[in-house]
Amino acid sequence: QVQLVESGGGLVQAGGSLRLSCAASGRMFNMGWFRQAPGKERESVATMTWTGGRAVYADSVKGRFTISRDNAKNTVYLQMNSLKPEDTAVYYCAAGPFTTDEDSRYLYWGQGTQVTVSS
C-alpha cells in the first residue's frame, strides 16, 4: 500500500510561485501531478518516471512548471512559476506503474491541495 500526502498549496497572486510537495510511503512508483478545476475534468500536469530520468508536461504548463523527485526522501515536487488565474485548481499527486497522462492508470492518489491564483 502506498500513501501520498500533498502540501504546499495556497493563495498566490498572478505571476507568483508555489512549490507543491508529495510525500510518499511504501515502494517507489512513477509519479504524476494532476489538477481539477471547478466544473472541469481532471487533467495531467506533469509526470515523471520513478528514476527521475524523464519528465513530461502538459502544453499549458511547459516552461513554467517543473516536476522533480528526491527518492531518498520519497518526495515528489512540483515547482510552479509564473502562475496564472487559470492554474487555479485542486492539485493531486498520483503513483502508479506507468508514466502516462491518463489518470485511470494510476493506482494511488493523494488527498489534493488547493491552489488559487488571483488576478
Give the structure's gist in a few sentences:
0% of the residues lie in helices and 51% in strands. It has 119 residues and is mostly beta strands.
Termini separation = 40 Å
Please tally the β strands and state the result.
11
The average pLDDT is 94
Share of helix, binned: under 10%
Question: Looking at the structure, what is the overall shape?
Answer: globular
Whole-angstrom Rg? 13 Å
Strand content: over 45%
Summarize the biggest pleated sheet.
7 strands, mixed
Return the structural class: mainly beta
Total helical elements: 0
- Low-pLDDT segments, ≥5 res: none
Spell the H/E element sequence: EEEEEEEEEEE
List keywords for this structure.
119 residues; mainly beta; 7-stranded mixed sheet; 4-stranded antiparallel sheet; 11 strands; 0% helix
Describe this structure in words.
- This protein has strands at 3-7, 10-13, 18-25, 30-36, 43-48, 55-57, 65-70, 75-80, 89-96, 108-109, 113-118.
- By secondary structure, it is mostly beta strands.
- Strands 2, 4, 5, 6, 9, 10 and 11 form a seven-stranded mixed sheet that branches.
- A hairpin with a 4-residue loop joins strand 7 (65-70) and strand 8 (75-80).
- It is globular, with a radius of gyration of 13 Å.
Helix/strand layout:
Blueprint lengths: L2 E5 L2 E4 L4 E8 L4 E7 L6 E6 L6 E3 L7 E6 L4 E6 L8 E8 L11 E2 L3 E6 L1
Parallel strand pairs: 2-11
Antiparallel strand pairs: 1-3, 3-8, 4-5, 4-9, 5-6, 7-8, 9-10, 9-11
